[in-house]
Amino acid sequence: MPRFYITTAIDYSNGDPHLGHALEKIGADAIARYRRLCGDDVRFAIGMDENSQTILQPAEEAGLTPTAWVDRIAGIFSDHWDRLHISNDDFIRTTEPRHTRAVTEMIERTRKAGYIYRGTYEGYYCERCEEFKQEKDLANGRCPEHPHREITWTKEDNYFFKLSAFNDSLLKLLDDHPEFVQPDIRRNEILNVLKEGLQDVSMSRHQRGWGIPFPGDTEHVVYVWYDAVINYLSGTGFPADGYRDWWPAELHVIGKGITRFHCIMWPAMLMAAGVELPTTVWAHGYVNWEGRKLSKSSDAPVTLETAEERHGPDALRYFLLREIPWTGDGDFSWKRFDERYNADLANDLGNLANRALAMITKYRAGVVPSGAQTSLDKKALETLAAYRSAMDRYLLREGAAAAMELASAANVFIEEQAPWKLAKDDSLSADLDRVLAGLARTLARLAILLSPFMPEKCAALWQALGCDREPSSLDAYRELDLAANTVHCEAVLFPKADSR
Ligand SMILES: [Zn+2]
Q: What's 337-476's CATH class?
């Protein structure tokens, strides 16, 4: 069985989750669920980045110890992921001992290999990004991610990681393996950074009472970014025997703002420590609110709660993945969400299910007849090919679009075949069977294809067709036969939303 280890970036424990966090989890979850449909043995890890110094202030303001604070934030995040049906197998927190163990081992291996030295860091440091910035990275003298904050000039004795030693190896990596950074626009950005030449990076900070102690020097903690990316490895049990059951990862899903850490620093860290590299880092874009980036610092006009409650969690999942290209930025607005909910889910898919199930109930007493193949079966095979081609390349929007085309085709099929006319003439009974059986198969196929996007609704549709549990394999798609299944048509999958 092919294995597939997929991760998302771990989230900062200094505020509540917003739509941007949700987009990443939902997209990665759709990929994980798709790989499971394909028969892969999947491990899907998400988690929290808890060693940041930036948690100290909000913890103090809330009157909590840092530990109590990160516990609380981890609970808030994971509650959202449960509500959104994120099917993660692991929820790693970087304050866990298993993570400290992996970080310590990575640093010891790297030191032994001669890639760590002591030096003095002097330069800009964005406290919010927790990132050392070069003059050329700044916009109007400030961090472009945090334009409302002053950037600080810092000078510290630190441990340094000899990143510059990996410049050529990284260029070669991106040449030999264009799939290492995707989509291509992100790969080109990384290539440009590499062509300018890399500088060594600080990998420690002075101890301020929070963070992973630097191995061999308790006055320092491990620089939070150096520690954070190692979570992907700690999630496999590294360095314990058996970590290779899951490592190297097939896919790291991250946001486009943190590509340098994942596409330059992380592979260099792994090379330095003699650990295998992941296959692909996929950098998605941002969810914008009418063109503006949603971030923790801005008081967003949309919260994750309100977005989840609008039409339910599955509708939000579908909307984000169908509307925001997985390759770049996209816009969120209530108007667009309502329009797409009504057009795609209530009308195209919901109506199709309601009509087909109602006709099977009315004309065949709720039992799916057996019937010959129809033009819809042919369309379903074309759909499968387009869907797989998109999903195999992580093009989630195109995958969802391919599936929804099948729903549209089925609605056209109903109009063309007019089962209500066939039902009036007993001599056309076999034709009616053919139409109803074809519609039942199509609904079941839609439940399979759309289950990575809307797992709860697709399980409900699957069960409404008289099938057990939930759609679990693409293998079932081609030879599907629902004859003799008893359908249930009481459930309305997507009630039409009033315009607000
Ligand atoms: Zn910043």
A: mainly alpha
pLDDT in tens, 192-237: 999 999 999 999 998 888 999 999 999 999 999 999 999 999 999 9
Of 120, 122, 73, the C-alpha closest to 95 is: 73
Q: Given the residues 99, 126, 162, 262, select the one marked as catalytic.
A: 126
Q: What's the DSSP call for residue 301?
A: S
Q: Which amino acid is at 5?
A: Y
CA–CA–CA angle 175, 177, 180 (5° rounding): 115
- Rounded to the nearest 5°, which phi and psi values hold at 20? -65, -45
Residue 145: Cβ within 10 Å count: 18
Choosing from 38, 133, 146, 489, which is the catalytic residue? 146
Do residues 211 and 205 make contact, with C-beta atoms less than 8 angstroms apart? yes
Per the listing, tokens 């874009």 go with 285
**133 counts as catalytic:** no
Ligand 1 (single-atom ion) residues, CB below 5 Å: 126, 128-129, 143, 145-146
Q: How far does the centroid of ligand 1 lie from the alpha carbon of residue 147, in Å?
A: 8
3-state secondary structure (DSSP) of residue 119: strand
Residue 123, C-beta contacts closer than 8 angstroms, at least 6 positions apart: 132, 133, 134, 153, 154
Task: List phi, psi (to 5°) of 151.
Answer: -100, 145
Rounded CA-CA distance 298/75 in Å is: 23
440 and 485 Cβ atoms separated by less than 8 Å: yes
Q: Tell me, what's the pLDDT at 136?
A: 86
Distance CA(252)–CA(188), nearest Å, equals: 18
- For the residues 54-80, what does the mean pLDDT come to? 95
From residue 267, alpha-carbon distances to 51, 160, 189, 284 in Å are 21, 16, 16, 19
In sequence order, what are the beta bridge partners of 160? 117, 202
Q: What is the CA radius of gyration of the chain?
A: 26
Euclidean distance between CA atoms 135 and 123, whole angstroms: 9
Going from the Cα of 207 to the center of ligand 1, the distance in angstroms, rounded, reads: 21
What's the gap in Å between 491 CA and the centre of ligand 1? 48
Where are any strands of DSSP class E within 60-115? 90-93
Calculate how far, in angstroms, residue 390's C-alpha sits from the geometric centre of ligand 1: 34
Catalytic site includes residue 296: yes
**HSE (side-chain half, CA atoms, 13 Å) at 207:** 9
Token pair for 45 = 């890890």
- What is the domain partition of the chain in residue ranges? 3-284, 337-476
d(CA 279, CA 262) in angstroms, rounded, equals: 12
Question: Does 299 have pLDDT greater than 80?
Answer: no
pLDDT tens readout for residues 345-365:
999 999 999 999 999 999 999
129 tagged catalytic:
yes
In angstroms, the CA 429 to CA 235 distance is: 58
Residues 471/53, Cβ–Cβ less than 8 Å: no
Fold entry, domain 3-284: Rossmann fold (3.40.50)
